[in-house]
Design a protein that fits this description.
Number of helices: 16
Number of strands: 21
Distance between the termini: 86 Å
Radius of gyration: 31 Å
Helix content: 25-40%
Shape: globular
Largest sheet: 12 strands, antiparallel, barrel
Structural class: alpha+beta
Strand order of the largest sheet: 8-9-10-11-12-13-14-15-16-19-20-21
Length: 628
């Protein structure tokens, strides 16, 4: 009888407990309904809700409710109910989805005594390694060697408390496309059309510094955000929730910059930064948006290894830099022989530059370990024998950081005269930067244009003057340490001085599709204020006005980009293609001068001249450019 009574008592208490828990859960569900939490902006962002009120997340494991992806209210209710369900270690909703759990507990003011005890050793270990206290947005400058990095790249560094001097060992959150090797030419197309999955990853920051700063020679700008420790922790908890989630990655729109903006929007509900970048999310533009919201607390410049080496060459002079390159690639036994003609101070400078030069080649996999390692050891040994302090000096931080650069898009108005006829021209560029634009915040010698076009009104006729779908040019000048190629390609449509028979004309113009590919070398002064280049350029054109419907040309191209003052710069370019259809050379001269009112407004004076078969074509213009 006593056993039966005891069993009845236990069953009664269990039923009573279940009834009590059920009542508590229902009370919180009712409260969530009253507060309309399913419509709260933070819940919508946690669920990645689109305009249809459904989640953009395709991974089913991100949802607790069977219909959670399409019915976010049911997902909210399922999460509230799951908070009160006992679970094994690491299996509780508070372990799997800590950010949304903490937000619900906070919004509903759920009392701890109402919740079951949970243990999350995996989450606790992960958070214990990161120790998130503050967040720093990192901007890696453009890299022309990779289509996905031509606009630059952003990532997020997570720093523990009081670790300013050791932030290289902090962790960084990176959002990038997951790409298999051997993609070849399809890589750019797949990236533009969202064929790759974009995923969050976590890694030590020093690995990204090595990748960007050492391997790709990209300067880094670090923008410490004024997020609170609580906001930073909430952000990191959400990263944990996204372990198995991916989105289609688009190089231009849904990319690293766009997704990191979404994380900041999540922890600052009053912001809506990502809303302004639905069409294109250029990293440098997103950083400006963050800075304009007063989210930046401190800016740190981290120069790339090549930037540091070039700063030494500028400091010590070209002859010593050339000697350093010679020493770096000499046999170990010959190094002292090369150095003996220099005094001790210059030897120290040469050895330091030689070490950095060879190390840069080694990390870039340009030389084999068997070649580099004994020479690096010998350079260190020789330097240790000179009792002088190190001669390296940190590069001077650029006067303008990327947040002060001109905006990516522009609108232009131009008036002038073509062959004695007056014209008005209106232009627009969707992105990003050309050689004549204000250079503040950009690397000199890079040009990347996307959807750049203009329409012209002349002689009572309105017509498309030109449209460049994509133009990419990298003018990487020769240094004492290497001779990089200058290269570029331009794909678009333009008006050419042609008659209907495809011959050069002083009176007619006809449109042609145009592909130009250039390769050559460039040279700049030590201040990189004046850069000149010489290239061999190939032309392929197609159009109805051409006799065969197409033509091919090849010839030299010379040009100079000059920054005369902070307000005045110029661009001069001469092309001399030899056309296969006419068997004639054509001279093309384009020169422009610019006065910079400020980084967002400029005035331009231009003159273009063409000559072929004894005939001339020229155009003079005055224009205004507004960046926005």
């Amino acid at each position: 009888m006593k056993s039966i009574a005891l069993l009845f008592t236990l069953m009664s208490s269990t039923v009573a407990y279940s009834a009590t828990t059920s009542q508590i859960v229902q009370a919180y569900l009712d409260q969530a309904e009253q507060q309309k939490l399913q419509h709260d902006i933070t819940w919508q962002r946690l669920m990645y809700a689109n305009q249809k009120g459904q989640s953009d997340v395709a991974y089913s494991g991100y949802f607790l409710a069977p219909e959670g992806q399409t019915q976010l209210k049911k997902e909210l209710q399922a999460n509230i109910q799951a908070l009160f369900q006992p679970a094994e270690a690491n299996q509780s909703v508070r372990c799997r989805f800590p950010a949304r759990s903490h937000w619900l507990i906070q919004q509903l003011n759920i009392q701890q005594q109402d919740l079951p005890i949970v243990v999350c050793p995996e989450l606790d270990d992960w958070m214990g390694q990161i120790k998130p206290y503050k967040a720093t947005l990192i901007y890696a400058t453009d890299f022309m060697g990779n289509p996905s990095s031509m606009f630059g790249h952003t990532l997020l560094r997570l720093d523990p408390k009081d670790q300013k001097q050791l932030n290289l060992v902090s962790y960084a959150v990176n959002y990038a496309a997951t790409v298999t090797s051997g993609e070849g030419w399809s890589f750019a197309w797949n990236g533009l059309t969202g064929q790759y999955p974009g995923e969050y990853s976590l890694m030590p920051y020093y690995r990204k510094v090595k990748e960007y700063g050492d391997l790709e020679s990209r300067d880094l700008w670090e923008y410490e955000l004024n997020l609170s420790p609580q906001e930073t922790r909430f952000l990191v908890e959400h990263i944990w929730e996204m372990k198995h989630v991916s989105f289609p990655y688009y190089f231009v729109s849904d990319n690293c910059a766009y997704r990191l903006l979404g994380l900041i929007d999540l922890v600052r509900p009053e912001l809506n930064l990502s809303e302004h970048f639905n069409v294109a999310a250029i990293p440098i533009e997103t950083i400006k948006a963050i800075e304009q919201q007063a989210l930046v607390k401190e800016i740190v410049y981290r120069p790339a290894l090549e930037t540091q080496l070039l700063a030494q060459a500028k400091q010590h002079g070209k002859p010593l830099a050339q000697a350093a390159h010679e020493v770096a690639f000499s046999e170990t036994k010959d190094m002292p022989v090369v150095l003996e003609k220099y005094p001790a101070l210059e030897q120290a400078k040469i050895l330091e530059m030689a070490y950095d030069d060879l190390y840069l080649q080694f990390t870039g996999r340009k030389v084999e370990p068997s070649f580099a390692q004994p020479r690096l050891r010998q350079l260190l040994s020789l330097r240790s024998q000179i009792d002088l302090e190190k001669q390296r000096q940190q590069p001077i931080r650029p006067k303008d950081d990327p947040t002060q650069a001109h905006d990516a898009r522009n609108f232009s108005v131009k008036v002038g005269e073509v062959q004695g006829e007056k014209f008005v021209e209106i232009g627009h560029r969707q992105a990003y930067h050309d050689l004549l634009d204000p250079q503040a915040g950009f690397r000199v010698g890079t040009q990347l244009l996307f959807w750049d076009g203009s329409i012209q009104y002349r002689n009572d006729e309105l017509k498309l003057n030109h449209f460049d779908f994509l133009s990419v040019n990298s003018y990487n000048p020769i240094t004492p340490f290497k001779m990089p190629l200058t290269w570029g390609f331009n794909l678009g449509w333009q008006q050419e001085a042609l008659n209907k028979a495809g011959e050069f004309s002083e009176h007619e113009q006809h449109g042609v599709s145009n592909l130009k590919v250039q390769m050559g070398y460039s040279y700049a002064d030590k201040e990189r204020k004046h850069l000149c280049y010489a290239q061999l350029q190939n032309h392929i054109q197609a159009g109805k006005a051409l006799e065969q419907g197409w033509r091919v040309g090849i010839g030299p191209t010379l040009g100079c980009q000059n920054i005369w003052t902070d307000k005045i710069n110029s661009l001069l370019q001469v092309e001399l293609p030899y056309w296969q259809d006419s068997h004639q050379w054509q001279l093309k001269l384009n020169t422009q001068f610019q006065y910079i009112l400020n980084n967002q407004n400029t005035l331009r004076l231009g003159w273009q001249y063409q000559k072929q078969n004894g005939q001339d074509w020229d155009q003079a213009s005055l224009g205004y450019v507004r960046f926005f």
